[in-house]
Give the backbone structure.
Amino acid sequence: MKRTISLLLALALCVGLLLLPGCGWFNQKKPATPTTYPFVFVHGLNGFGDEAGSPVSYWGATGGALLPKLQEQGTMCFAPSVSPMGSAWDRACELYAALAGGVVDYGATHSARHGHDRYGKDYGTPLFADWGTVDNNGNLRKVNLVAHSFGGATARLLCALLQNGAPEERTFTGQEPCSPLFTGGKGDWVFSLTCIAAPHNGTSLLTAVDVNPLLSGLASLLGGPVLENLLGRLGFTMGGMSLGDVLRAAKTLDTAYYDLTLGGAKDLGRLTRGLCPDTYLFSYPVAGTDESGRPTGDMTALYRPLGMFIGAFTSAENGVDDAWRQNDCLVNTVSATYPFGEPHQEVTDPSTLTPASLAPATWHVMPTVMGDHGTVIGLGRPLEETLAFYTEIIARVDALSRWVTG
């Protein structure tokens, strides 16, 4: 009897162990296979992708095309085009369509609210086939996003929509179903997001222009016909409005202008807060001035007056204190650190980082890059310098993804 009871207890113990997470046959996971993911480069304001046919690449700029060099090193990477002046929402929808393929759906509710067409460009074949599916080794096919400037807001909003969707678009009762982007539940489709010189918290440049009587007056006095003729040569029309009218209207519309203001960035932050719990976040602030706002030799001479203008501006009323003086000629360095109020970790020495020391859903703020808003994408810099910068970024993310999946 004692022997029988002992055997039964031993059997019960074995069964219990088998049912514990990670133990035994019932919960045993298939051994993971280390993997890396493609890199998608997201351009900023007035930018363009590599398929745009421009004689100069946005990524690499005057130094030369960056992505072909990265591809020679074995990195799978893409640089799609999204609206040069579109809002973060519209650009995020376009980025999704470029990756997943097909026609852009801006959302029925969003489009009706802002008075533009619901559907946009047909991107055709997806850049990354089978994005979000599981490969033969049991790994989810993800992407890494690398974003410059306003591309950071675009990528952040894409991540948030993938994770949370858009309730207003899901509840729309029209005939056409909403885009899969708005259904949410796809937060794990992005492995990492790296933002470079991104105005997470807006730029004080726009506020400085608004409150400057001389500049505001100049914008209002600039006649519609003159500006319309100038923009007409570039394929744009203003319908006879003055620049002042355009700027005032832009603040209330679905535009990049509003998203880049201090208030617009706060609104965007409420949409993107939390992002994706499994996504690794990196941010590279850039500075071409000292902390007092005086340009240094790291800033291209042509941009120094703009750097001085931003560095000289503070406004207690708008929350722009001395910490906002340092800038890269377009974006305040402090704004490019991390979205205020979100988890973050200051990285003083990148060489000490290990995959185990990195946490998802936390902004890892890398040491400030000395230069200006253009040098970090290759304007006025040799391709070798630009290539070394992005190679380091890619190597760190690839090592992290191998560690996570290994």
Residues 1-30, 221-228, 230-243 have pLDDT under 50 and may be disordered. The longest helix spans residues 383-405. The radius of gyration is 24 Å. DSSP finds 14 helices and eleven strands in the chain.
